[in-house]
Amino acid sequence: MGNERILWGAGTSRTIRPHWALHELGLDFELRPILPRTGQTKTAEFTALSARQKIPLLQDNGLILTESAAIITYLSDAYGQPHNRLVPTDPRQRAQCLEWCFFVISELDATSLYVMRRHGDLRHIYGEAPQANAAAAEYFQQQMRTVERALEADPHYILGDRFTAADILLSTCVTWAVRYGVSVSDRVLAYNERAKDRPAYTHALATNAPPAAGIVIPPSGCSV
Ligand SMILES: N[C@@H](CCC(=O)N[C@@H](CS)C(=O)NCC(=O)O)C(=O)O
Predict the structure, then answer these.
(1) Centroid of ligand 1 to alpha carbon of 161 (angstroms)
(2) pTM tops 0.90
(3) Which atom of ligand 1 is nearest to the CA of 66?
(4) Which domain holds residue 79?
């Protein structure tokens, strides 16, 4: 069991999530900035860590974890302090935070934006499906109504004054949607700017940047 913290992955809307969490929590880490669809997730070394062959992946003192939402939840649980915790410990507050996290990952990321990705830029692999694309964009906007409602009272973040893991996930999806030309309201844009104003986001942008000049990450910010 190695005494180490290594984050694998850079360059995408999913990889920036653990970068952001690590910076919020003030944690040091080694970075293996491998990129999607370059063959780097298919190497024997990486496949030995995860047969899913997906980034981000965290190695932390012998623990191997994939799934961006699981990684940021773990980091908060293991290392968060009262002043910077990203997932509350109180069971009710925790449940509400996780409700948002699961909602963002399943409804906004997987069901909407990733469908657009598959049948848009990746149509050569997954097939052209303009109707599915349009329906996914519409679904995203429909699902965002609950976000609108939560922000109506004009709280700073989605759960109020406290920045949480749900904001990392939601903000990365809003940024992704905007890059895809899906329109979101001024209220949501203002919320997203507040989230991205945080110093940890600026650090995350830097460490999540694709390492080699000349590598072009497509506008979605995710290539698979
Ligand atoms: N649900 C996963 C999605 C991870 C995912 O699909 N990652 C993509 C990049 S954004 C990937 O690693 N694709 C493999 C490849 O392109 O080689 C998460 O949130 O972590």
Answers:
(1) 30
(2) yes
(3) 20
(4) 5-84+202-207
